[in-house]
Write a structure and sequence with these properties.
396 residues, alpha+beta, Arc Repressor Mutant, subunit A, Aminopeptidase, 3 domains, five-stranded mixed beta sheet, 14 strands
Length: 396
Amino acid sequence: MNQIILTKEQARKIILHAAGLAKHAQFGKGREAVYKLIDHLGFVQLDTNYVVERAHHHAIYARVPDYKQDWLEELQHDGRVFEYFTCDAGYMPMHDFRFSLPIKASFAKRYPLEQPEINLMNQVLDRIGRDGPLGVKDFDNDRQVASSGWWDWRPSKVALERLYMSGQLMVTRKKDFHKRYDLPRNIVPADIDTDIPTPEEFARHVIKRCLQSMGVAYAKEMAWRAHYVKDNLVKKELEKMAAEKEILPVAVEGLKGPLYMLPPYKNKKITLAGDAFILSPFDALNVFRHRLKDFFEFDYQIECFVPAPKRKYGYFSLPVLIGDTFVARMDSKADRKQNQLIVHNLHFEPVKLTRDMLGKLTDALKAFAKFNQCHEIVIKKSNNKPYLKALKDGLI
C-alpha cells in the first residue's frame, strides 16, 4: 500500500491546520464560529481548573478571538451541542449524539447495580421528570457517615452521575459551572438520529473524527479514543478504510507509524500565519504528550498533577505557540480580586525569537489578560532576561 511521505515541517502544518491554529480566527468570528469549531474538532475538553479561565472557554477563545462565554450556553440551549464524557468530559456537536450511545451502554454494563441503588436512581429520575432540571444541591444530604475525601460522593450524587454516564440523564451548566441534570427528551432535538451505531460504525466515526481534528495521527491514538470497541476493531477498520482510500497511510521522517491522514490534505496548500497562541494544557493539540515530542520537539507535561517538589515550570504552565514552534511555557494565575494576570514563571524554550515574534507574544499576553478579565500583567520570573525586558517594554 502506497504511503504519503511527509517531512516533519509538512506534518506540523497539517496538524496545526486541523487543530484550527494555522491563523487567528481560522473559523471566523462570532457565535457561529464557535459552533463551526466544535463541529470541526468534534470534542472540546471541559475542565474544572479555574487558575486561569476554564479549559473549554480557553480553547474556544484561542481560536475565536471575540468569543463570549454565553455563546456556548446558547448553543446548548439551541440543541446544537451537548456535554458528555468520552475519554474526558467535553462538548460535542449534537448531530454526533448517537455516537455517545455505545459509551453509555458500555458504562451501564461495567457497573452493575444492586436493588437499593436502582431504587434510588428511579426516585431521582421520577423527581426530575416531575420537577424539571435539578442540581445536586436540590437533593437532601443523604450521606450516612462523614465524608472521607473529595471523591466520597453522597448517594444522591452517585445516582445522578450514574444516570448521566449511562445516558438516562444529560447535563447542562449554570453560570456558576454547577451541573443541572435533565431528561434527554428535554435536551435532544426530535430530529436527531438516536439509533445506536454498530461497533464498526463507531470505530469508523472515531477514526474520521480523530483525523479531522488531529490532521496526522497514530493508530494508537485512535484506538485509545475508541477503547469501548474490542477485538482490535480500530486496526481492522483502519486497514479497510485505507484499502478503500477513505484515509491515507502516511510516513513521517524519523517517526515510527502507522500514521494516517484524510485525503483532502494530500495536495492541500497550507500557509501558517505565524500567529502567537497561548494554549490551555487541555487543548486538543496538547492531549497526547508523545505527539508534542514527536512532531514539535516539545517535551510538555501539565504539572498540577505532579508533586510540588518535582515541578520544573509551575503548577499550571500554559504552552505558548508561535507559528509551528512552541517558544515558551507560562505558569500563570488570574488574580480576579486584584484584576491581575500573574505570570509566576515565563520559561522560554531554546529557540531564537525575532522582534516580530516578541511583538506577537506581547499582543497575545495582553489579549489573554483581557480574556481573563485582568487589567494588569505581572511577570515575576523568567529564564531569559532580554526577552523578558522586550515583553515588559511592550506591555507598558
